[in-house]
Design a protein that fits this description.
The protein has 506 residues and is an alpha/beta fold. It is built from 15 helices and 14 strands.
Length: 506
Amino acid sequence: MAGGDLRLNIDEIDLLNKYGCRPFPRPEAFTFASSTATSVSNFAFDKSDKARSILIKESLKNGFKNTAIDFSESLKNSIKKLFKLSEACEIIFSPSGTDSSLQIAAITQIITDKEITHVLVASDETGSGVSAALKGCHFENNTALNYPAKKGDQIEGFRDVDLIKIPLRDENGQLKSTPQLDAEVFNAISKTNQLGKHIVLHVMDHSKLGYQSPSEDMLEKLNLLQDLSLQVIVDAAQLRLDPSDIQNYLQKGYIVSITGSKYFTGPPYSGALIFPKCVSKLVNSVKNTLPEGLNKYYNHSDWPGSWFCSKDLSDGFNYGSNMRWKAAIVEMERYYRTPILYRNMGIEMFCNFVEDSIKEASFLAPLAGDEINENPYDTKEFGIRNIRTIFPFFILKNKEVLSVAQVKKLYVLLNTDISNQFESTSLEIIRLAAQKCHIGQAVNVLFDNDVQSAVLRISLGARVISESWVNRDISLYFRNIEAQMSEITVIIKKIELILNTPDLLN
């Protein structure tokens, strides 16, 4: 829980943070919330605890500073190994995905003297603090190093920048088409380029609702622009990518922003930026230092040791962030231990079931307008980014969609034992009411393009696969996936139970 901001705080009764997660295992809950955040697994918690014990022994033997630096470097090397990345890539850890955006804003300030414009694609489906972070402003009322801050105020040392937001939906709430979004992005970049500015394009590869924009064709088209000063950042915070996808981005000179706490179900928050060799070389050659105000956000040890720009940052180590990354890497390692054929078969089996289950429930309406996500990639290979793994849905009562407030209330009730409301009913109903079900939190979306509502999300997380392969037995593997599919059925039944109990949503 250390080394983050107020978002990691837990309430004193349920011991859950604002995302419905506990900072220790919660095996009693059915959890398909990887599009938001997930409580740490028993397996990852135990491995992290062992790592902590080893760190204590090592620091007594080899000194505190050396041990902490070695631990952070070993985590970065594990990520490089898992994604088969070049040694020349650099990785910066950050306490959250929003902090990664602040790091990008800071690096951009020191590598160019030009005026800066950030073009933020999918601005309506990225983290709520990202816009503030890109402008060099505080996005919470305290920093990751626990200094007080005033949300919205500019951080010391940042100069003013422009921010062009390109939302996925129009003013009527209608999802824009891929050509429409591509045209908006291209026009924004070509016009800004004519003004002689340095442009940072933030590409979305899997938003909160599973969308990607702009297309690869549009990104290629940017090469036709004359005298273009551009850096592309890929927002892959969901990390619903295969290693080859990350390698492909880095080869093109793009910076990739990832987290260990979404698809891979590490504890929230754990962000990282992966820099390709060419960009790392550029940053390393710069003799400017990072904006002064970052001293209250990051330690020098979080950044590559060879970079001059970070030399004035605070001394110290972010153990919380490192431990969260340790847990996430443990999950990644066991996910990739599942043979790829069974992994892909399991993903397809689970995702098809979730999609069908939502369609079959008369009180659920899957989010329409999927045309933007219908595999915009020219590939015949099965890849995690090419299939839908996040399933958003509206909730209907008497054929009318619930209000935003009711959806948020239902989300909390789902994740809570509400059996005390059903004491005089059957044992089956009491058990259903008692079951804690944690799914992706509400995202505001217009229903039928005219009624303000919100969707909840059931998502595939890496644990669905890795925990099913735990016995390394094919027949048990598919049986284990079926057991998790039956948990989806329970979640949908509990939604129905809440809808059929009017007092609960009032």
